[in-house]
Specification:
mainly alpha, Four Helix Bundle (Hemerythrin (Met), subunit A), about 85% helix, globular
């Protein structure tokens, strides 16, 4: 187990901590959740950088990097649906897409083919992470900043929250598009047993 893989896997417990903090009312909980999310998002880039720089790129790392991203996104999306900040239909589309692509990756891996994230998938993930960051940042501004600066940030927080929702809608659209591209690109590998 090398350092890039440890950083990759750390995003899974981080998701649980972030979601737990989303339901905490104590002052600073929203800020801790936001900055832990930012650290996890930066770690998503840094683990790949370390792996490439140190010649530590592995099949396990490629698969777990993509899976850790999905776990982080899906966990936060479920929490935001529970808080009525993301519509259920967007969450269901996201879940279906992620399970479909993960299933395809598993089938392809069983045949010796590694399905790495392409540019479309990475753009989708980045868009979703920015959107989720905005949704996490809104309560930080409304509660923690308001207390710290003795100023009402409610209007600002509402704008940030709306930007997050719009960003997530865009991310969902990109998820469907990139998912379609994955299916078309790897359909012969994944469905060869059915076709043949």
């Amino acid at each position: 187990m090398n350092l890039p893989n440890i950083i990759t896997l750390s995003r899974i417990p981080a998701m649980f901590v972030i979601v737990g903090l989303m339901y905490c009312d104590f002052l600073g909980a929203a800020s801790i959740a936001f900055w832990l999310f930012i650290i996890s998002a930066v770690g998503d880039w840094y683990d790949g950088y370390l792996a490439r720089k140190g010649n530590m790129v592995s099949t396990f790392g490629k698969l777990m990097d993509a899976l850790s991203d999905k776990i982080m996104v899906v966990g936060l999306v479920v929490a935001f649906v529970d808080k009525d900040e993301i519509p259920l239909v967007l969450a269901l589309i996201t879940l279906c897409r992620e399970f479909l692509i993960t299933g395809m990756r598993m089938v392809a891996a069983s045949k010796g083919v590694i399905v790495s994230a392409d540019r479309g998938g990475k753009t989708k993930t980045l868009t979703q992470l920015i959107a989720l960051g905005c949704l996490l940042g809104a309560p930080m501004a409304e509660r923690d900043w308001a207390h710290l600066f003795s100023y009402d940030f409610a209007d600002f927080a509402e704008v940030v929250s709306k930007i997050g929702l719009i960003g997530f809608i865009l991310g969902t659209t990109l998820a469907v598009w990139s998912g379609f591209r994955y299916v078309m690109k790897y359909r012969k590998v994944v469905f060869s047993d059915i076709d043949g």
